[in-house]
Amino acid sequence: MIARTNHMRDTKKLVGSLPAIRYTKPKYLYLAMANARCPKAELYIKEGDHVNSCQVIGMRHGPFFDQPIHATCSGTYIGLEKHYHRNGKLTDFIKIENDFKDTLDSSLRIRTPEEIEALTKDEMTKIIEDCASVGLGGSSFPTHVKFKTDKPIKVILINGIECEPFITADHRLMLEFPYRIMEGIQYIMKAFNCHQAKICIKSKYRDIKEVYTQVLKEYAGSGIELCCVGNYFPQGWEVEMIKSATGIRLKPGELPSNRGVMNFNVSTVVGIYKAIRYNMPVIKRNVTVTGDGINFPKNFRVRVGTSIRDLLPLCGGYKDPDKEKVFILGGPMMGASVPSDDCIITKTVTSIIVLNKTNYKEEPCIRCGSCVLSCPVHLEPVQIMNAVKTLDKERIKLLNPLRCIECGLCAYTCTSKIQVTDYVRKAKIIAKL
Q1: How far apart are the first and last CA of the chain?
Q2: Does any domain span residue 362?
Q3: Angle formed at CA 279 by CA 197 and CA 136, multiple of 5 degrees
Q4: Using one digit for the tens of pLDDT, what is the confidence trace for 151-195?
Q5: CA-to-CA distance for 144 and 127, rounded, in angstroms?
Q6: Is the Cα dihedral 368, 374, 378, 381 positive or negative?
Q7: Domain span including residue 402
Q8: Distance between CA 153 and CA 260 in Å, rounded?
Q9: 259 has which bridge partners?
Q10: Backbone angles phi and psi of 253, in degrees to 5
């Protein structure tokens, strides 16, 4: 376990220091029909139809909002295929054959600085809604819903912390696109009539600090500043970030907007910039492909809808190909495991982690308390596990598992190698019944 932890740390540092590789023209792209927040969808095109890049080709339907589906290249709609989604489930994906012409939809336009300055908050919210902007750090929460708050916002926090092991997709984005980020932050500040914004990063990220210290000189008087926070997990959790950056301690379930705070992932900010400036939805994103199961971990900038199988050869293929692999979409702590590499990069896939499978023998709980001490929301994971094993529904509800953020620390720190987090997930399902 120690050896793997050291490997993770060294790999993250190395991959984060290298530029992201542009891989934006795969032969086929795949777009999920439904997702975790929108379980139903309808398609506006039929097999054989030609589509343009950024064209609305369908609509996902959620419980309180709809979400347009945009083509991420121009080409021909082939049909539906099943692949693994970031939620770990086989899902119907729209398959588009790329014509490599990248013909843009007529809805795209370049707004001048004067036009952007004249936009009202409601107009900006509508643009973001039409462009289907969501939280790109992995939450997939619709951005326009955040914009609809009527609470006064005193400070905007930009989450560039990226605290999970392995992942450096946002790290590279911040180094390679600082001006898009700065402009996006200014658009958000304008929408909320807010005069203070903080770009939050880990204090150990010296390269990012150097870049933004210089860039911020060009934005003197903008109200934007750099905020260096802790070097621990889960510092990127919004509650922890808000406490570190502002001193505000949110109560369980309390919305940050109720305390005058609004926060966005740094990749989401770039998406907002593209939406306001060009009327463009998110069709590209940074993604990390890494782990001890591949030869050369790398960061890529890819089209949304790219198959992981297109990227693995660019990483030198599998290391120890005879060994069984573990595939994780997202971070190793909070990501979802999928049974094969037949998975697709959606908007909210930050990484694909490929590990050589290691079989750990689970031992009986020794009551060491590691899971309790490591829990950021102060739960009692072992007590929850025992209640799940006995199907004690009332006890489960009293232990309040719904507060769990599924950070995975209880399982990671367990000296008996018990998958405690899985029991807490089951408890959350039972508590909702």
Answers
A1: 37
A2: no
A3: 50
A4: 999 999 999 999 998 999 999 999 999 999 999 999 999 999 999
A5: 9
A6: negative
A7: 370-432
A8: 4
A9: none
A10: 85, -5
With tokens 């094993």, the residue in question is 389
Query: Are the CB atoms for 319 and 293 separated by under 8 Å?
Result: yes
Q: Which two tokens stand for residue 141?
A: 């929460």
Question: Comparing C-alpha atoms, which of 282, 346, 284 is closest to residue 138?
Answer: 346
Q: What is the distance between the alpha carbons of residues 223 and 228, in angstroms, rounded to a whole number? A: 16
Phi-psi sector, 322: left (phi>0), alpha (psi -120 to 50), beta = alpha
pLDDT in tens, 75-134: 999 999 999 998 888 999 999 999 999 999 999 999 999 999 999 999 999 999 999 999
Can you name the residues that pair with 299 across neighbouring β-strands? 288
DSSP conformation class of 234: T
**Alpha-helix residue ranges (DSSP H) falling in 259-331:** 266-278, 308-311
- DSSP classification of residue 161: -
Query: Quick one: 333 and 393 in the same domain?
Result: no
Extract the tokens encoding 131: 């462009």
Structure-token pair, residue 154: 């005193």
pLDDT confidence bin for 213, thresholds 50/70/90: very high
SS3 of 34-94: CCCCCCEEEECCCCCCEECECCEEEEEECCCCEEEEECCCCEEEEEEEEEECCCCCEEEEE
| Pairing state between β 90-98 and 351-356 | unpaired
Mean pLDDT, rounded, of the chain: 95
- Closest CA relative to residue 259, chosen from 424, 149, 100: 149
Of 353, 356, 289, 357, nearest to 319 by C-alpha is 356
Three-class SS state of 156: strand
DSSP 8-state symbol, 25: -
**HSE value, Cβ hemisphere, 13 Å, CA-based, for 10:** 8
CA distance to 33, 248, 300, 433, per residue, from 354 (Å) = 25, 37, 15, 35
Residue 87's pLDDT is 85
For residues 248 and 130, give the distance between their C-alpha atoms in angstroms, rounded to a whole number.
33
96 and 80 in a common domain? yes
- pLDDT at 273 exceeding the cut of 70: yes
**CATH code of the domain covering residue 142:** 3.40.50.11540
Q: Is 173 exposed, middle or buried (0-12, 13-18, 19+ CB in 10 A)?
A: buried
Tell which of 356, 387, 421 closes a domain.
356
pTM above 0.90, yes or no: yes
Structure tokens at 213: 């210290």
